[in-house]
Design goal:
By secondary structure, this protein is mostly helical. Helix content is 73%, strand content 0%.
């Protein structure tokens, strides 16, 4: 019998069964689900809240050594911490408890995020940003893992879609809010991180604490990993790595392309990027709501839309046509995330949910980090930002074609 892989859909566990590696809680209220959704907002706040005030931070520490590098670290240090600590945090969460680790992460995120309001050293601020990233990793991993643990079938896909969509819609508001709050001084923007402490209060009293029945040490056969799980993990991490690199192409690299096409001020670029972000949110929403298609079909369609959208951005000859093509690529980027998450978590045993989600998050942020150097290479090969965008789109189309080839050639499981 062929091993299950990308071309086969994992079977869902039957509702109501409580066994080893299965959560003992099944009834989850919409309030608890919304709290888990809001946990993912920490990622948006960590990356976007300070973006509008980075120039003011640079001016405030003009005499600091390696100024541009350190100011860049203020923005990117949380992502570095997530990439480093996602896997060990997921492993720890499986043993300590997902909800407990989420609560600790919210506290660390909030406290470390606010502390820079009183700091006078740029190096110290960068250090606190690293702690913010550790808290962000803890909250993102556990909130996603809890959704995968407590929901099944179409409900899991729907809530994962809502999680991604809500985060991207919030991202637009965070950029605007950061800029407005920054009018009172760059330090004021750090108060946005009190969100972690505010969210901690209802989570402390309302979040479920699922108890996973773990296999006894004397029965290691029960603890065995489901057939094909780690192959599916590797495949999913590779696909989300490429998808995350494509996502950053749409929300970061597109800014430079918009500038070349005539968006000479930040307001014009912001509106064009908001259209792309709206496409991401709509794609995630659609992926969660469409339950008739298999996860594998959604993944193929997502990479097709990413590729077509970015190639169209390359071929566009004006700012307007480029801005119209960006939401197509964004839709594909948003469409792929819930589909991949749902396929992966549906095969993951409850007592390994944190570790697998940690691998997923690490691959996601690795894709974020890989995007800038990748675009430097593509830009040097193609000779322009537009050509680099088109080449990134071609990579997505190649992945789509490869998935179609695998689906046709792999043997179907009996």
């Amino acid at each position: 019998m062929a091993e299950r892989s990308l071309s086969s859909e994992p079977a869902e566990p039957r509702e109501g069964i409580v066994a080893e590696g299965t959560p003992a809680i099944r009834n989850v209220s919409w309030v608890q689900a919304v709290l888990l959704i809001m946990g993912a907002w920490c990622t948006v706040l960590a990356s976007g809240a300070l973006a509008p005030v980075l120039p003011e931070i640079r001016d405030a520490f003009a005499s600091a050594q390696r100024l541009d590098l350190m100011v860049g670290f203020v923005a990117t240090m949380p992502s570095l911490a997530v990439a480093i600590f996602a896997i060990p945090i997921g492993w720890i969460a499986d043993r300590v408890g997902l909800t407990q680790v989420m609560l600790i992460g919210l506290a660390g995120f909030g406290v470390a995020g606010v502390i820079p309001f009183w700091l006078t050293s740029l190096n110290a601020i960068v250090a606190t940003r690293f702690v913010v990233g550790i808290g962000e990793a803890a909250v993102m991993i556990t909130s996603t893992a809890l959704i995968g643990l407590l929901f099944h079938g179409p409900r899991r896909t729907r809530w994962l879609g809502i999680q991604v969509a809500a985060a991207n819609f919030l991202g637009i508001g965070v950029l605007l809010a950061g800029g407005i709050i920054g009018l009172w001084g760059w330090r004021a923007a750090f108060w946005i991180y009190t969100f972690g402490l505010i969210l901690l209060i209802p989570c402390l009293f309302l979040l479920p604490r699922p108890r996973v029945a773990r296999p006894s040490t004397g029965n290691m056969a029960v603890r065995s990993t489901p057939s094909g799980l780690w192959r599916l993990v590797i495949e999913s991490c590779f696909l989300i790595f490429v998808g995350s690199a494509a996502l950053y192409s749409v929300i970061v690299q597109a800014s430079f392309l918009f500038e070349v096409r005539g968006a000479t001020d930040s307001a014009m670029r912001g509106m064009a990027m908001a259209a792309a972000a709206a496409g991401i949110a709509l794609g995630a929403t659609a992926s969660g709501m469409i339950t008739k298609w298999t996860g594998f079909a959604k993944v193929r369609i997502a990479f097709l839309l990413m590729g077509v959208g970015m190639v169209a951005m390359m071929m566009a000859d004006s700012l307007i046509t480029t801005a119209l093509a960006a939401p197509i690529a964004g839709f594909g980027c948003g469409f792929v995330i819930p589909a991949l998450q749902s396929r992966l978590l549906s095969r993951t045993p409850a007592d390994q949910m944190g570790g697998v989600t940690g691998l997923w998050i690490a691959a996601t942020f690795a894709g974020h980090f890989a995007n800038p150097p990748l675009f430097i290479i593509l830009n040097s090969v193609g000779g322009s930002q537009a050509a680099a965008m088109g080449m990134m789109g071609c990579i997505c189309l190649v992945v789509c074609a490869l998935l179609g080839f695998l689906m046709r050639t792999e043997a179907k499981p009996t």
